[in-house]
Design a protein that fits this description.
The complex is a heterodimer. Chain A has twelve helices and seven strands. By secondary structure, chain A is α/β, with parallel strands linked by helices. Chain A has one domain: Thiamin diphosphate (ThDP)-binding fold, Pyr/PP domains (Rossmann fold, 3-Layer(aba) Sandwich), CATH 3.40.50.970. Chain B folds into two domains: about 200 residues, Rossmann fold (3-Layer(aba) Sandwich); about 120 residues, Rossmann fold, CATH 3.40.50. In chain B, the strands form three sheets. In chain B, strands 3-2-4-5-7-6-12 form a seven-stranded mixed beta sheet, sandwiched between helices. In chain B, strands 9-11-10-13-14 form a five-stranded mixed beta sheet, with helices on both faces. A two-stranded antiparallel ribbon of chain B has the order 1-8. In chain B, helix 2 links the parallel strand 2 and strand 3. Chain B starts with a strand and ends with a helix. The chains are: A alpha/beta, B alpha/beta. At the A-B interface, helix 6, helix 7 and helix 12 of A face helix 3, helix 4 and helix 5 of B.
Chain lengths: ~400, ~325
């Protein structure tokens, strides 16, 4: 038997910065938009990206001004469209959460505080590009033009649910928008997305694939499979780790002992960036940059999106049990919707009145979408998809044993 | 018809698929330049180029996941898992992703992957080069499970598996790559002169979901797949009983009609597989036959299988079902 050492337990278990009842601790960022040079997407080595992996790519400064070489110089209409998509997602989420709380949805997951991510990044891509999301990127569907009624019908699982009542709410599938079916096992989409991109290269078609997973999920094999296959085959893919600090109750300090998430890609010889995830312009800019590289046949880009999960993990979660309740208010990156709004106001392209009018417009859109959706069935009373849909789509054709079981059910 | 061993037959099926369909691509560990550790993909990279037949990193989970993505994006990946024992890092991708994508997306997305994987014992492979994990997949709705046994059905079934729009796990009995196996480790014939080594040289397909009656008989139905087909044949000979030998070929969905018709005729049934007995696929067949043939059965259905232990190395001949055990079981079904 080894003798027990007479010292503090050497077994390291990480801790988050603060627990309930303690004061949130976040250092103010020293990173400024002027810090990082814009790199040439067609002539950038992994080494060139090192400062970007350890720094923080920002465009909007603390005064809501767009600064630095990474400013994508978007016109006001595009900025307003981005703001509108983000506001729509937030209002939609609020309405759906209310539905869940009143028993009208079985479950829900909001994107609160992370609205800019999928929206800015999808706006920076082309319609033919593939989207392999986790459950925190439903906003991409708004950019791709999905109808809210159809999204709500899915969340209810009513007779108009395009996935026929088979998946939990928020597990969207939207083929028309090249938005792959969301899967509950975390991270599986990451390595799959690399396969989609490999197929795009093989076929020689102009398609880029984008995928996301979280800081917690980056512990999964699929994250490392994805990075390594992307490193080996150099397909046109944008690999994002959304570091929102929390995986349900597991803080990122417990998820890894690494320096940061962005730099992990360096050893795979993939250019790496860490970007302010609450900065619409920075997200748009880096995604456009990575897509340009990918389209030129230069392979993957790895991005850590530095943000904060302002809401609960899901409707089944209560973050006040494991983190300070007001922690989000102290996040140095602020709120992504507010930051873009304030930027638009700053450049004279928006004002509070227009903001309120847009809010009201979206609110009534969401309400009428909801009212229409429940016409096709609500959670309590249906109608749901016919029971026969239990047995279809298992295989291309229903085999005898499943047919027998369907007949046994008698519906 | 040309005489081929199983490796040549599989290679021929792959060759023709690569030739006929640009969306077919092959990848896996060592399958590219080298042509696979069992040589099944030999010369295919040289013939079709490194973009169609290539080596992957050593990550079965990554192989399955990227195949998923390729399938979504219009390709028809045929991947090799070097040994069936190594398929488990890919299990989540197969069970939760590949098997379910058609269902969970309401039919919007599908991924027609074929997993080829050498399985089964008899090569002194020990714990981790010998397992036959078919039952770990037959319990997963959404994938088809196929097990070839001869050069002829290896080619025909592999063609059907690749052309299937459903994902298929295709097991190859590695013991039979170069010859049939009758359960005697001291007598290892090649495929030379075997009737089932006659394989069409051109395109050749055997429909999935169909069992083959290999030998007709009157007094007992013997069901087997993979290498055990040949061991069962030897066992039948040793028993001296008139047996109907059925090669199951597709395990899910299996050919119930052929099995039920045969057992109704013979009234007796022995099921042979080399995987462990408990929760093995023999249990499913036994239950299904019992449900459908109860009033025709003259004696209990008997399973002759590998033991409920890990697969051993130097003692493997006492692990695998042998002709003697099979003959004993057949004779037992004949007792009044």
């Amino acid at each position: 038997m080894s003798e027990k050492k007479n010292s503090e337990n050497p077994f390291r278990v990480g801790t988050p910065p603060a627990r309930p009842g303690e004061n949130p601790i976040f250092n103010k960022w020293s990173f400024q938009p002027e810090d990082l040079k814009k790199l040439d997407p067609l002539n950038c080595t992994t080494k060139d990206s090192e400062p970007h992996a350890f720094g923080l790519l920002r465009v909007l400064n603390d005064n809501y001004e767009a600064k630095g070489e990474w400013d994508p110089e978007l016109d006001a209409d595009t900025l307003r469209l981005g703001l509108e998509h983000m506001m729509r997602l937030r209002i939609f989420d609020d309405r759906m959460m209310k539905m869940q709380r009143t028993g009208k949805l079985s479950f829900y997951m909001r994107s609160l505080g992370e609205e800019a991510i999928a929206i800015a990044q999808t706006m920076a891509l082309e319609d033919q590009d593939w989207i392999f999301p986790s459950y925190r990127q439903p906003g991409a569907q708004f950019v791709r033009g999905r109808d809210m009624v159809s999204m709500i019908c899915h969340c209810i699982g009513n007779e108009l649910d395009n996935v026929k009542g088979r998946q939990m709410p928020v597990h969207y599938t939207y083929k028309e928008g090249r938005f792959i079916s969301i899967s509950s096992p975390v991270g599986t989409q990451f390595s799959q997305a690399v396969g989609v991109a490999m197929a795009s290269s093989y076929k020689g078609v102009d398609e880029v694939t984008i995928t996301w997973l979280g800081d917690g999920t980056s512990a999964q094999g699929d994250y490392h499979y994805g990075l390594n296959f992307a490193s080996a085959f150099k397909p046109p893919i944008i690999l994002n780790v959304v570091n929102n600090q929390w995986a349900i109750s597991t803080h990122k300090n417990l998820a890894t002992g690494g320096v940061n998430f962005a730099s992990r890609g360096l050893s795979y010889d993939i250019p790496c960036f860490r970007v302010d995830g609450n900065d619409f312009l920075a997200l748009y800019s880096i995604t456009k940059w990575a897509a340009k590289r990918a389209r030129a046949g230069l392979g993957p880009t790895h991005i850590e999106i530095y943000t904060y999960r302002a809401g609960a993990h899901s409707s089944s979660d209560d973050p006040s049990r494991y983190r300070p309740e007001n922690e989000a208010d102290f996040w140095p990156g602020g709120d992504p919707v507010n930051r873009l709004k304030m930027h638009l106001i700053k450049i004279g392209e928006w004002d509070e009145k227009r903001d309120n009018e847009l809010k009201e417009k979206i609110d009534s859109e969401v309400m009428s979408a909801y009212k229409e959706a429940v016409k096709y069935g609500d959670l309590a009373n249906g109608p749901f998809p016919p029971a026969s849909t239990i047995f279809s789509d298992v295989y291309e054709e229903i085999p005898w044993h499943i047919q027998e079981q369907r007949e046994e059910l008698g519906k | 018809m040309v005489e081929m061993n199983m490796i040549q037959a599989l290679n021929s099926a792959l060759d023709i698929q690569l030739k006929n369909d640009d969306s077919v691509i092959i990848f896996g560990e060592d399958v590219g330049f080298f042509g696979g550790v069992f040589r099944v993909t030999d010369t295919l990279q040289q013939k079709y180029g490194k973009h169609r037949v290539f080596d992957s990193p050593l990550a079965e989970g990554g192989i399955a996941a990227t195949a998923f993505g390729m399938g979504i994006n219009g390709l028809r990946p045929v991947v090799e898992i070097q040994f069936a024992d190594y398929i488990f890092p890919a299990y989540d991708q197969i069970v939760n992703e590949i098997a379910k994508i058609r269902y969970r997306s309401g039919g919007e997305f599908t991924t027609p992957i074929t997993f080829r994987t050498p399985a089964g014992g008899g090569i002194k492979g020990g714990n981790h080069h010998s397992q036959s994990p078919e039952a770990q997949f037959t319990h997963t709705p959404g994938i088809k499970v196929v097990y070839c046994s001869t050069p002829n059905n290896a080619k025909g079934l592999l063609t059907a598996a690749i052309e299937s729009n459903d994902p298929v796990i295709f097991f190859e009995p590695k013991r039979c790559y170069r010859g049939p196996f009758y359960g005697d480790p001291h007598n290892v014939p090649t495929w030379k002169g075997h009737e089932k080594a006659e394989v069409p040289e051109d395109y050749y397909k055997i429909e999935l979901e169909k069992a083959e009656i290999v030998q007709e008989g009157t007094d007992c139905t013997v069901i087997a797949w993979g290498a055990m087909l040949h061991v069962a044949e030897a066992g039948i000979k040793e028993s001296g009983v008139s047996c109907e030998l059925i090669d199951l070929q597709t395990l899910i969905p299996f050919d119930k009609e052929t099995l039920v018709n045969s057992v109704k005729k013979t009234g007796r049934c022995v099921i042979v597989h080399e995987a462990p007995k408990t929760s093995g696929f023999g249990a499913e067949l036994s239950a299904s036959i019992q449900e459908n043939c109860f009033y025709s059965l003259e004696s209990p259905i008997i399973r002759v299988t590998g033991w409920d232990t890990p697969f051993p190395h130097s003692t493997e001949w006492d692990y695998l079902p042998n002709p003697e055990r099979i003959a004993t079981a057949i004779k037992k079904t004949q007792e009044e």
